[in-house]
Amino acid sequence: MPAAFPKFRIQIDNSYTMSIQNDLILRTARGEKTERTPVWLMRQAGRILPEYRKVRASVSGFIELCQTPELAAEVTIQPVDLLGVDAAIIFSDILVIPEAMGLPYELVEKKGPFFPNTIQTESDLKNVRTADAESDLGYVLEAIRLTKKELNGRVPLIGFAGAPWTIFSYMIEGGGSKTFSKAKKMLYTQPELSHRLLQMITDSTISYLNAQINAGADMVQVFDSWAGILSPAQYETFALSYIRQICNAINQEVPVTVFAKGAFFAREEISKLNCNTIGLDWNMDIKESRKLAGKKILQGNLDPCALYGSFDEIRKQTKTMLDAFGPDKHIANLGHGLYPDLQPDKVRCFIDTVKEYSTQMRK
Amino acid sequence: MPAAFPKFRIQIDNSYTMSIQNDLILRTARGEKTERTPVWLMRQAGRILPEYRKVRASVSGFIELCQTPELAAEVTIQPVDLLGVDAAIIFSDILVIPEAMGLPYELVEKKGPFFPNTIQTESDLKNVRTADAESDLGYVLEAIRLTKKELNGRVPLIGFAGAPWTIFSYMIEGGGSKTFSKAKKMLYTQPELSHRLLQMITDSTISYLNAQINAGADMVQVFDSWAGILSPAQYETFALSYIRQICNAINQEVPVTVFAKGAFFAREEISKLNCNTIGLDWNMDIKESRKLAGKKILQGNLDPCALYGSFDEIRKQTKTMLDAFGPDKHIANLGHGLYPDLQPDKVRCFIDTVKEYSTQMRK
Asked: Domain B15-361 maps to which CATH number in 3.20.20.70, 3.20.20.210, 3.20.20.140, 3.30.70.20?
């Protein structure tokens, strides 16, 4: 591993290097001043695109799509061509980690993920193991390698994983929940068991993210989707401490983003992590977050529902957001993933406005 | 209506007045120093009590229970006897308002509320009207009058209503939602229609809360359960402005509490409302909230899941919470409603700890 990572050059598969033509997001994530604000969208590869829905219809389900590297690569690249985003994000699911650890899941139409087996007691822990990315998650790594080849250096590729608390909550609850009271109950009633499982998830995630980087991911993001359900004290003990381990253990030459949805109360602590970028949801005031986040790059944070508005309204809201973030240290995105019924034209309007207006802002 | 409301005396039905023996919560809500911190719990009348489940089993469903004043009064009083709380809260549902406005609902087992008809367009507005509390919600008012008689002045009775944005979201979505994207979409795409419906809900709610006060409610609470789903700008425009109307229009002799779950970003603005008490959820840091809330009384905010812990852990967490709030200007509660599978003994432990420790704190 080279001590100083050569700027603008990305190592793939330890076998060859390739220039990234549009490396705007990498330069921004490293704190450089850039000619405009980079933009990508959470869930940009997905149901809003008819081209995605066509590929999705060719397989039995979402999980099969994730597990078929050629198709995962194809849908990963679609938004680069169709929307003009400044980064691709590998098409996958945060729930591949519990599956690789020994808890398979299904996706139930209109209901979401369902785990037939969950962790409730000490003895259930025997049914799970720390995942080894190369042997357990080879299909994701293969999808990354294929995507890198097909992207051919046009834009960087983002890898990702769920944060340990979020993964833990699915492994206990067995699916989504309004209150996550089963998962939270375990933190209160079985803290040692909780810590053991969280550590296994953390070790699996470190292996997984480093393997994604070795396979070619140019930056990585950790998604703590259910951060906002914990009290500030529990968030520190059961969530942030594990994200901290991940940030410290993964390959430091690749920029890291932490997005803890709803954890407004932890912004100052998150800003002390060994990461480059902090994701904001749409509830978090931009200027206040800037103060709390110190020198970190911020990512976000338009309300996804704003893209239901008229083109004029989208332009207006996007400019207001860009003005609040200012020209530097910002990666434009939404405050959450795209919703499936948003129109591609409206999404493009957001992206185009970011590109045009953020260029103007620098003049 | 008397210009100066006589302290410690409550007017019922304009026909007679009655002393409240334990008026601790009323004195605290009015800013007085008290001998200990008052305590009650959101959803204290409900499934955690076997005595409630017995009454519930005697009728066809939750909605029938709400609509049967004798039974609603009975379950309202149960936690006063069984848990030792310092206030009763009338057993009802925030969704009685959409029903009174012309949108009936059902409660689907394990799924929650379901509205067969919803508001999507201008023409749907013809199907709803501003509710008149006396004619449309007489059963709640009758339950309040019965409860007041049976309470016989032991503790004050709290009335309540949902905040307009929360009620609106159910009327658009037709039920619960993870993202409330339909309701939010309407705010972005049909702001005028949204404001018209929000105004109708607001007018209905003002009529309803004033009628509850006339029927005997000693204080009232406005629940904005889905406050946290809106951006700060939308929260001001589509939520807070209507809560402001309500606070200004209801009978000012009765203390008013506003609980906007998840609206951490609006605490400062909420503290400017014409209300006495601000509810906090468990995500909201107590000392920070104290600074933001100025002179307001605060209510809350232990994580309901903390009551899954051991008795020792519950005592410890409750004391930590009381220390953070300090002895004055605090009404002890949870940061959300009780979950149905919590044990009454654990709930009692929270209540008893509040009573004992807050008495000690004043010595």
From this structure: 3.20.20.210
State whether B185 and A305 contact (CB < 8 Å): yes
C-alpha distance across the termini of chain A, in Å: 39
CATH architecture type of domain A30-301? Alpha-Beta Barrel (3.20)
Show residues of chain A in contact with B262, CB under 8 Å: 228, 283
Which residues make Cβ contacts (< 8 Å) with residue B312, sequence separation at least 6? none
A271 close to A234: Cβ distance less than 8 angstroms: no
Tokens for B244, please give them.
Answer: 């402001």
Between CA A48 and CA A304 the distance in angstroms is: 12
A189 to chain B, any CB pair closer than 8 A? The answer is yes
Catalytic residue among A47, A145, A154, A315: A47
What pLDDT, in 10s, does the model give residues A101-117? 999 999 998 889 999 99
**CB within 8 Å: B283 and A228:** yes
Each residue of A133-191: pLDDT tens digit? 999 999 999 999 999 999 999 999 999 999 999 999 999 999 999 899 999 999 999 99
CB atoms within 10 A of CB A93: 18
- Name every residue whose Cβ is closer than 8 Å to that of residue A349 and which is 6 or more positions away in sequence: A307, A311, A314, A315, A318
For residue B104, give the 3-state DSSP assignment.
Answer: coil
